[in-house]
Amino acid sequence: MKASITAHKDFTVANIDPRLYGSFIEHLGRAIYTGIYEPDHPSADEQGFRQDVIELIKEIDVPVTRYPGGNFVSSYNWEDGIGPKENRPTRLDLAWHTSENNAVGIHEFANWAEKVGTEMMLAVNLGSRGLDEARSFLEYVNHPGGSYWSDLRKHNGREDPWNVKLWCLGNEMDGPWQIGQKTADEYGRLAFETAKAMRAFDKNIELVVCGSSSPMMDSYPDWESTVLDYTYDTVDYISLHMYFENNSLHMYFENNDSNATHYLAKAEQLEHYIETVAAVIKTTKAKKRSDHDVFISFDEWNVWYHSREQDKAILEGADGWPQAPALLEDIYDFADTLQVACILNTFIRHSDVVKIGCMAQLVNVIAPIMTVEGGPAWRQTIFYPYMYASRYGRGTALNLAVNCERYDTDFATQVPYLDVSCVQSDDDGSLAFFIVNRHASEEIEFDIALEGFEHHTVIEDKVISGYDLSQTNSPQAETVIPQEGTRISLVDQRLNATIEPLSYRMIRLSL
Ligand code: AHR
Description:
This protein is of the alpha/beta class and 511 residues long.
């Protein structure tokens, strides 16, 4: 099969906010304890953080990390995690049916974030608590001193404020599973009043209001419309979440080739979701005669289904209240590598409206990085498309014209077999193409016309290809890894290459 692509220098989508490649760490399962924090681990630093994990996170280069939840935040008291560790209470976490000893709180997370080189994105509890807790937390974190909460922070060992810019107004408040779930009207009012109070403290912080927790929610997209009606001029982003399963509507698929083609069409649902919410934002802006802009913070996304069955006992309480049990430990396969690449391509192509993205999550919990307690840290199959997008997807997204054959599924029509995005680096002008072939049996020979560019050298060409779709990595063997690409030419501003069936390819060109 053949495909042709045109990239024109002046045909752009947007300048990408680097925070599009963010992530998320929740007090859930082993994300924190034995994930990023394990004082007895051989690689732990003086503060108890696993340096082997920090090194892997640095390979990805994660610009922003959302914390402390997720569902966890909706019954969390942030004050439990400050002060001497021996005085911190153990609480029962109602979201994940586990015990939380609060050994890690805001100070520890901030220290870790500094080591990793990631910006903090903090969520306030609008489930079991509300405005008062939010304003105290903000004062504790961001006020220089001379007030009750800021002086308590100093007393607890942190002199300077952390000046956190990004704040989430609760989490998934539309979800029946959420502690303190609200109707759109209840949440819209509360979010507005909380935003107003937080802005009274600092009008320059950036606020994220909850949108739908999935496009499958019955309340979607009325939820967005109602919530934005209350909050439009006081918030900067509306948060969306979406998790992908390798299934049709009612059953999981066997991992065979034609099912993978179907699975990989799911990014089309993501595209529809983004475009619908972008339309709601525009409509609300017009209704309010506002000159303020609201963007999308896609602050939870990933594949999540492999671990659902094995997690049932803990989530239903059959195991009591374990501390840091293995939960949501999806072991990803090669099909998921391709799915994650398609999701990231969708974000890049919509980077005019999606400004923040958080892969959920970062370590052990539906994560690209896994750890063995007392043992090694290792990269899952989904690590690489995330790493390449984060490293080379910063700059200006191009609006490509892509001509190739298409297919239909029971939930999407006219899905192009070739999924592609392209970013021009603001630093050195290099071009990065991120490409997935969704076809089960045919390779695609593609020809890219580079118009208005003067790129002459292929500086990097990586493929992830040829694996069984069920192939996974493990602590013993990282099997699914990038290899050098072959069969590529760049002559007279025309790039020609071939991508194998069900494969990923990342190509970088320099000036
Ligand atoms: O990321 C796992 C969970 O998924 C989060 O806690 C919640 O926000 C979502 O439902």
